[in-house]
Amino acid sequence: MRFRIGWLGPSMTVTESQARLGREVTARIEQPGAVSTLCFGRAGSSVFGFGTDRPRHVVRAGDIWLFHGDDAVLTRQTPAQDQAVMVALKIPWARMAEVLEGSVRSGGGTRALRLDQEALSRFSLAPLLDNPLAGPLDRLMAESHALALLVRCLAPLAGGLADEPMDDSRPLARVLDRLMADLGNPPSLEDLARDAGMSHARLNRCFHRAYGKTVFAWLRDHRLERACRYLRQDGHSITEIAFLCGFSSSSHFASAFRQRFGCRPADYRLGKERA
């Protein structure tokens, strides 16, 4: 079993779990107070429940479930299977209790709701799972996307707001998805703007307001931050990292890296090894 956990903001985390199991495994997930968990099934299946209570809730690939517990232990039973992948977004209940008043009990009990699977039709989990969370701006961007995703999932429970225009978060999320789908061959700014339903000038303004930089400045920094993650590991050569992060050549990668960090990629890796 493998887990990746990222801290997005105050009491908000995202966890990706991947499992290949030869036998059934049961896990106890202790909840620190009134915590809600938005659970996305990516592959395989798991069965969730609260303690020994019934019923149990099967989360399969493509499912979205909301689990809420007050100091309750959430259990997860994962049967033997080749692959089970889940993503869990945890958020304090207080941040959405008003939105879901009457839909989920806010005290003295537990509840599970299966949400509309179409909630991901305009959103992707990639901006959460691919974000390096290397600094405050990364975390702010991840928290912003997590909250927009949360709104999309919960809006039908609050009166069908999902089809109403919320702000620029949805088109910007689509732009991020397209940028990260192929780092080496990003669409043109005109294509991205067309997909977002706005002019390229407005797209850059909205992107700068949300993320502190223009579209392609963000892409350049994202490539370099991902490269730093690879350089801190031992599994890839400098040339392999260049292509994995979307650079056309190792020399182009070295030039961009030196301009941003003031040293060559090899020197950065050597410095981390010595540290």
Strand-helix topology:
Elements: E1 2-9, E2 12-21, E3 25-30, E4 34-43, E5 45-50, E6 57-60, E7 64-70, E8 73-78, E9 81-92, E10 110-114, H1 126-129, H2 136-154, H3 169-181, H4 189-196, H5 200-211, H6 215-231, H7 238-244, H8 250-261, H9 265-274
Antiparallel strand pairs: 1-2, 2-9, 3-8, 4-7, 4-9, 5-6, 5-8, 7-10
Question: How would you describe this structure in keywords?
Answer:
275 residues; alpha+beta
Tell me what you see in this structure.
α3 (169-181) packs antiparallel against α4 and α7 crosses α8. β1 and β2 (12-21) form a beta hairpin. The longest helix is centred in the middle third of the chain and has 19 residues, at 136-154. This protein has helices at 126-129, 136-154, 169-181, 189-196, 200-211, 215-231, 238-244, 250-261, 265-274; strands spanning 2-9, 12-21, 25-30, 34-43, 45-50, 57-60, 64-70, 73-78, 81-92, 110-114. It has a six-stranded antiparallel beta sheet with strand order 1-2-9-4-7-10. It starts with a strand and ends with a helix. With 275 residues, the protein is α+β, with helices and mostly antiparallel strands.
Strand sequence of the main sheet, in spatial order?
1-2-9-4-7-10
Taken from the alpha-carbon principal axes, the silhouette is: globular
Roughly how many Å is the radius of gyration? 21 Å
Count of individual beta strands: 10
The biggest beta sheet reads: 6 strands, antiparallel
Element order, helices and strands? EEEEEEEEEEHHHHHHHHH
Class of secondary structure makeup: alpha+beta
* Proportion of residues in helical segments: 25-40%
Number of helices: 9
Indicate the mean pLDDT. 80
The portion of residues forming beta strands comes to 25-35%
